[in-house]
Amino acid sequence: MSEYKLASKGKGKLSFKGEKSSKKKKKRKAEESFEEEGQQEGWIFAQTMSDLVGPLYLIFNSEPLCCLHMSEKDRSINIQPLQNQNLAMVEPENVNCVFVGAQIIGNPDHISLKTCDGKYLSSDKFGIITADKEAIGPQEEWIPIIREDGIALQNSYERFLSVDEIADGGYKLRADAETIGFCETWRVKCQARLKKKQKTAKIEDKPARDFEIEQIKKYQTWGGGRVKATGEDISELKKAKKEGNFNEALLDRREKMKADRYCK
């Protein structure tokens, strides 16, 4: 069953700006539980990988604001200017602006983005964007790079989804940028009611060294049960956390330890 059909039933229903929410009487315990879980209405900014699973609204923070959009006429993917120019308050007004994110099985760091007609957002080796595939292949996989100023999407050719302004004042969508800049950074919103509550402590609330040890225990399959941490200065991890590339720094340190092992 399509994500959009599932979303039309129960708590997963897509909400659009201007729609009135129907209020139902509930028992006090249910209301308290709802408040404790931090459930909200509307659309909020995605901040973690788990937020990128479900309906998503991809906004380009230009002047004027624009969003990723599927044309009803020819089903092409383009950039559409928005009437509401308040980034914090803007919400999707129709389903053509909503893409359903899903983690790739066996590769949780990658996601797919499905349009409302069940096709997947795709990028070829030339950076051309389409959405006409009904199945997921390498060209339909995207790697989200989460930063403080937004989220960049990298394709299987290690290029980034980018927006370029063209001569007539419009915008052109491509996926051939080699680095992340303003044009490659998207502000992604998810539905507040579907945002998963984090059961574990947030990365930023844990000391960098403690989190590194947890990751080593999780991924290290060699060493006879011993936990071997890198002897490098922990200040590198603290700096990476501030810059928004903490996970990448952890991966680099783990890979270096494995490489050192084979050099001995």
TrEMBL record:
Region spans: Disordered: 1-34
GO molecular function: actin filament binding
GO CC annotation terms, alphabetical: catalytic step 2 spliceosome; nucleolus
Alphabetically ordered keywords of this record: Nucleus
Transmembrane region(s): none
Gene3D superfamilies assigned to the protein according to its UniProt record, in alphabetical order: 2.80.10.50
Main location: nucleus
Subcellular compartments: Nucleus, Nucleolus
Nucleus listed as a keyword: yes
The keyword Nucleus appears for this protein: yes
UniProt cross-references to Pfam families, sorted A to Z: FRG1 (PF06229)
Similarity section: Belongs to the FRG1 family.
Record PANTHER family: FRG1 PROTEIN, FSHD REGION GENE 1
Protein name (record): 13332_t:CDS:1
Originating species: Ambispora leptoticha
